[in-house]
Amino acid sequence: MEKSSETHGTFVSNGKIQKDIFESGSILDPSHPCGGDINRQFPEASENGEVHQVLQIINLANITPGSIHIDGNNVMMEMSLFFEAVNLGDKDVVELLQNAKQRSGSISVGLDSVSSASEFARLLNQAVAACVERRARGKPF
Prior knowledge:
Layout: E1 6-13, E2 16-24, E3 35-41, E4 53-59, E5 69-71, E6 74-87, H1 93-98, E7 101-110, H2 114-136
Antiparallel strand pairs: 1-2, 2-3, 3-4, 4-6, 5-6, 6-7
């Protein structure tokens, strides 16, 4: 995922500006070989309890192989495990991480174009295969 160490997209979703950022390397341990996070930001969120940020902490080895697909400019995937924290504008990063909840299911990264999504999906598939192999070999993942 080195080529996509930071991939992002800005678009309008449900009438609001949304910015998705995928960062490789775990937010908890940047040297983690298969870690990453999806940082979804809502810059127009008001202070009235609207979501400002959704942080999803992932391990690429937990993406279901073959589940990565493109829907418009979104790269969709199924996760057996990830952690998610929601910020209503009242938490710093430490508080956000302390309040992260364990989840499983579908997640996505929105990118600027269909071609960017296609390239990201291609690279993501390669990285997932490498991380699944690391796990099978008993290496840190």
